[in-house]
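Try this one yourself first.
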């Protein structure tokens, strides 16, 4: 395992190569991206489940920030880190497994199953209201 410390400005972080361990900068990047809007969706542009969850939120009148990881320069690293956060054992996978991942109010709700379960049991709307994504 090789470690190399890089410094950019005042931020210092470690990079880990090809050992299935995600760099800490991926977590920082996810946290920053998740905080940019009331609802944030990490997606892949060709994923039907991602399309469905984006449609669910837009149909409810929510305008989520969507990050298409297949089009993002750090998408593979972000995807791996998200899989680890979800507790998936396939953290080194490059397939769209585990996506979409939804954050509401800066907190991870989870993947499609958790979002749909929250929608069905009625807990999604209060989450969206608390985050300021819905006004009604």
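Now uncover the answer:
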């Amino acid at each position: 395992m090789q470690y190399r410390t890089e410094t950019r400005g005042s931020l210092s972080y470690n990079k880990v190569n090809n050992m299935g361990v995600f760099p800490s900068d991926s977590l920082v990047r996810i946290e920053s991206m998740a905080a940019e809007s009331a609802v944030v969706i990490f997606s892949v542009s060709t994923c039907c489940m991602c399309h469905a969850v984006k449609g669910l939120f837009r149909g409810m009148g929510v305008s989520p920030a969507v990050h298409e990881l297949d089009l993002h320069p750090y998408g593979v690293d972000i995807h791996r880190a998200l899989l680890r956060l979800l507790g998936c054992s396939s953290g080194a996978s490059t397939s769209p497994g585990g996506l979409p991942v939804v954050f509401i109010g800066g907190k991870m709700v989870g993947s499609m199953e958790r979002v749909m379960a929250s929608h069905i049991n009625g807990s999604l709307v209060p989450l969206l209201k608390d985050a300021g994504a819905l006004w009604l």
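Discussion: Confidence is low (pLDDT under 50) at residues 1-22. The longest strand covers residues 3-8.
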